[in-house]
Amino acid sequence: MFEMTLIDAAGESRTLQVPEGQSLMQAAVSAGLRGIVGECGGSAMCATCHVYVDEAFGDRLPAPLATEQEMLECTASERRPNSRLGCQIKSSAALDGLVVRLPERQQ
Ligand code: FES
Q: Where is the 2Fe-2S ferredoxin-type domain (predicted)?
């Protein structure tokens, strides 16, 4: 289990214990967190799992694949340099303690 902290647009923070290999989106949806929808179930086809990754962790994430890059063009809230899809972020030792901020809206 590794920790992931999600901070919503209102500034409310929630830390989840996420099994290795599980995506941030899956963990957030399972925990009933508002602010992450995950409409496509994690296939990088909907962009409703958009998050802003804390700068301290930017270098630890693998670069986004072309499909993720394309979907990041379709986010409901502003895309930023640190925008990523939560379904493509998998829990691992390298990302233990990851902090992300949620956008104002996903749809
Ligand atoms: S859950 Fe659909 S793109 Fe991430």
A: 2-106
